[in-house]
């Protein structure tokens, strides 16, 4: 009797494993699939796909697969059969058919971290409602003096710690500055709730606007606040770090950027804060931001799944299969960009460049906070290039894990330049 249970258990496990293996190999035989390799049963090719590499490259996995199978190939990633796209046209097709043919499909672990009402995770009508509110609010707030004041103060407060001229771990500093802002906002929410309880007058700012929306549930309100004010702190800090890194390797671009901001500063009174009109004059600054997004690849790929059988040219994507549009491969496609591995902000003066790159996504899920992030980073760069010079370590560079991290934390040697602008005496 004692021996029966292990035998039954072994038989059950054998049947389950056999079913999984048959199902795994059957998925490879669907008609009109692109070429590719599904890797090991259950594990697929996930380990190779996630292998760290320099973020300003496509990595060995994509290089080898594109060379062998072409720019669209099949694989098995994160536990699911997957179509991987390194093709610009197909990526646009995926983005433009959001909620029609394709839908967001991130791993369940991300929903547990971000919450089901996060703009990144939400789908359908919930996403439309949340995004509509976010776009409306951001569109009216990005040019306000209050936002510029907040963005400048955050930049200045981070740089105040650099006065000693000791080496600065920039990546860590950037994230900690945003963390301090997060803590401040959380305290403001708590105080606002207490004030509303006792019936004090509303101030009419962002938090009051969000809290007054009767159509939003409490969970949706929390997600809106986190997404707009706090959710992007990691990507913004990473992008700022990439810009500092690339400018450190491109003295001509840095000099051109400095000249643009010197011209803006000369037209202002001493200590006068930046405003929306100043930002509109920062054309080269915006080019630098977009080029850092292209070269640094803050977002390497997106998670999508097919809602039905999808035919694209001579390829059939089975319903339920994952689809990964890979931005990195398009960003470094020599057929689309001249000298694609070169950090060259001037390429963005050509309007065609913006049609070949999707630094902030596209379609119905285009990042609603893209312009807000650009304004924040532009304010930071204004004070950085006018007040400091810096050096990066020769053996430091950005790595994709798949999200960007610096090999040595982007440790900078900082030196002030003359008079510090934007500081109150």
Question: Can you put this structure into words, describing what you see?
Answer:
The N and C termini lie far apart (86 Å). The protein is α+β, with helices and mostly antiparallel strands. 51% of the residues lie in helices and 12% in strands. Helix 12 (251-266) runs antiparallel to helix 14. The chain has a five-stranded mixed sheet with strand order 2-3-9-6-4. The protein has a three-stranded antiparallel sheet with strand order 1-11-12. Mean pLDDT is 81; it is low at 15-22. The protein has helices spanning 4-28, 46-49, 59-69, 88-96, 108-114, 124-141, 145-160, 170-197, 206-211, 218-230, 233-249, 251-266, 276-280, 283-296, 327-331, 351-356, 370-387; strands spanning 53-54, 72-77, 80-85, 102-104, 168-169, 304-306, 310-312, 315-317, 322-325, 388-392, 398-400, 404-406, 411-416. It contains 17 helices and 13 strands. It folds into two domains: 24-115 and 300-360, Uridine Diphospho-n-acetylenolpyruvylglucosamine Reductase, domain 2 (2-Layer Sandwich); 144-185 and 230-298 and 361-425, Cytochrome P450 (Cytochrome p450, Orthogonal Bundle). It is globular, with a radius of gyration of 24 Å.
Summary keywords:
globular, 2 domains, Uridine Diphospho-n-acetylenolpyruvylglucosamine Reductase, domain 2, about 425 residues, 17 helices, three-stranded antiparallel beta sheet, transmembrane, Cytochrome p450
